[in-house]
Write a structure and sequence with these properties.
Blueprint (H helix, E strand, L loop, with lengths): L1 H21 L8 E6 L4 E7 L4 E7 L10 H18 L6 E3 L8 H11 L5
Parallel strand pairs: 1-4
Antiparallel strand pairs: 1-2, 2-3
Helix pairs in contact: 2-3
């Protein structure tokens, strides 16, 4: 059992490393990082050159607590795009980490694009 968990963690790390090898964020075009957990969703705009988080959002910031996970992800994407616009950021690099581009991850990206954030 333990060996299976270690294998899956290693697989997930390899997927994440592949994605991160291709993308990097700057101050003018930060990396939009997505972290999914069972309880919530975390989004960050990261400047990899200086190693700073420019803006972040979490599901706890939402007013409506009764949203389904995908709906909450879309609302969170809009919130982060508005924060980016307030900072003068119009473009970002989308970092899906080791997650496939569907469900909550896709909802975040599409909602951010609707608010004018370009990937």
């Amino acid at each position: 059992m333990m060996n299976i968990i270690k294998k899956e963690k290693a697989r997930k790390q390899r997927r994440q490393d592949k994605v991160r090898a291709k993308i990097s964020g700057t101050a003018s075009r930060p990396r939009l990082n997505v972290f999914r957990s069972n309880r919530g969703l975390y989004l960050q705009l990261i400047d990899d050159v200086s190693g700073r988080t420019l803006a972040s959002a979490h599901v706890r910031e939402l007013k409506d607590k009764k949203l389904k996970k995908v709906e909450a992800a879309a609302a969170l994407g809009k919130i982060l795009a508005e924060k980016a616009r307030a900072l003068g950021i119009k473009e970002a690099v989308f970092d899906r980490s080791s997650y496939r581009y569907h469900g909550r991850v896709k909802a975040v990206a599409e909602a951010a694009r609707e608010q004018g954030l370009v990937f």
